[in-house]
Amino acid sequence: MFLTETINGKGSLLSQFRTATKIARAMPDKLASKMVLEQGQILCSAHRVCGDGEVDHLLYKLAHKNHPVCKWVRETKSNYRFGYLLFLAQGREFYYRRGKHHGTYTRFVDILRTPPKYVPDGDFTEPPQCLSGREDLKNESYAIAYRDFIAYDKDYPAWNWGRPAPKWYIERTRNEN
To answer: Is 133 left (phi over 0), alpha (psi -120 to 50) or beta?
Structure first.
């Protein structure tokens, strides 16, 4: 039932999970590892800010409360659910590449499943583009913006842990060599 619910006319959670899975699979190895932790922190912070306190003793401490992605996850339950689906996909991807579960995933996969009590209902909204000072890479599509950010700004793109580099990365970097 969880993955077949509709998110305010924006498709089923299953289709959003497929999107989250594509995102996780396309991440370079370093991001595939660190983003499980970061996504866990984002979701824990949402519970700390908008929860009823019931699970606070199990959560990470509040982190980056005013970061645009943390604010976005708290805007609507639909945004939170997508954030959780991304967390699931990132955890599964880490396991695929490293052959073990990420500690953050193991610790929080069940605890973070339900959105915090005081996150309002509402439609899914476009995630913010947080590009670490590379405003020149912003785009109408956050997917294109992040692909460009990874290809043109980051010095750590490598896919050595069982996934090939995605086609979009190869196409973007082919002309630079």
So the answer is: left
In a domain, 134, yes or no: no
26 inside domain: yes
Asked if residue 138 is part of any domain, the answer here is no
- The reply to whether 144 falls in a domain is no
172 Cα distance to chain centroid: 22
Q: 44: domain range? A: 2-125
Q: Which of 47, 64, 45 is nearest to 115 (CA)?
A: 47
Distance separating alpha carbons of residues 150 and 109, to the nearest angstrom: 27
Structure confidence by residue, pLDDT tens digits, 78-117: 999 999 999 999 999 999 999 999 999 999 999 999 999 9
CB 150 within 8 A of CB 28: yes
3-state secondary structure of 140: coil
Backbone φ, ψ for residue 85 (5° rounding): -60, -40
Question: What is d(CA 82, CA 90) in angstroms, rounded to the nearest whole number?
Answer: 12
> pTM value?
0.90
Report the percentage of the chain scoring pLDDT > 90: 73
